[in-house]
């Protein structure tokens, strides 16, 4: 699941011996290590810890392709949203961890300015969107700017 969600590959698979798995999505030997050590208990979902992992795609088309790939595998996001500075799809992996796939909609400087501005102050979470609708709009010629415009998101 994790490799598919990240558009990644399994670099080292020791699940048959030491119960660990190393996943990468670039030239690095691993970006995520998963271990299933015998005797450990499942985490308490009400405990403090990591909120979510986020993986950024280079283009909106890459993000949409990943969404369609995951959907075809029966893995639909539980939340799709325009945060103003990212367009994001949130999934839960088999262990319940939250995984965000996203594309940046603003430069880092513009994102910082947005997060200090009135639109973000009025709604710091974002606006729910429907990726299927956005993908259809993209196929009908909508631009990146039209699909990610925060002022009209969700309409």
Q: Give me the Rg, rounded.
A: 17 Å
Q: Main sheet, how many strands, which sense, barrel?
A: 5 strands, mixed
Envelope shape: globular
Q: Output the helix-strand order.
A: HEEEEHEEEHHEHH
Q: How helical, in percent, are the residues?
A: 25-40%
Number of helices: 6
Spans with pLDDT under 50 lasting ≥5 residues?
Answer: none
Computed structural class = alpha+beta
| Beta-strand content estimate | 25-35%
User: How confident overall, as mean pLDDT?
Assistant: 84
Strand order of the largest sheet: 4-7-6-5-8
Number of strands: 8
Briefly say what this structure is.
The chain is of the alpha+beta class and 155 residues long. The chain contains six helices and eight strands; from the N terminus they run αββββαβββααβαα.
């Amino acid at each position: 699941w994790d490799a598919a969600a990240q558009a990644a590959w399994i670099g080292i698979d020791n699940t048959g011996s030491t119960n660990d798995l190393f996943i990468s999505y670039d030239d690095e030997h691993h970006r995520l290590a998963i271990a299933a050590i015998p005797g450990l208990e499942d985490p308490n979902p009400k405990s403090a810890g990591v909120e979510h992992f986020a993986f950024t795609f280079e283009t909106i088309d890459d993000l949409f392709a990943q969404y369609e790939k995951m959907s075809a595998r029966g893995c639909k996001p539980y939340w799709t949203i325009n945060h103003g500075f990212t367009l994001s799809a949130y999934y839960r992996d088999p262990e319940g961890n939250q995984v965000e796939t996203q594309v940046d909609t603003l430069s880092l400087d513009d994102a910082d300015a947005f997060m200090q501005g009135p639109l973000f102050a009025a709604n710091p979470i974002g606006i729910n969107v429907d990726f299927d609708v956005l993908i259809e709009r993209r196929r009908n010629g909508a631009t990146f700017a039209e699909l990610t415009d925060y002022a009209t998101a969700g309409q």
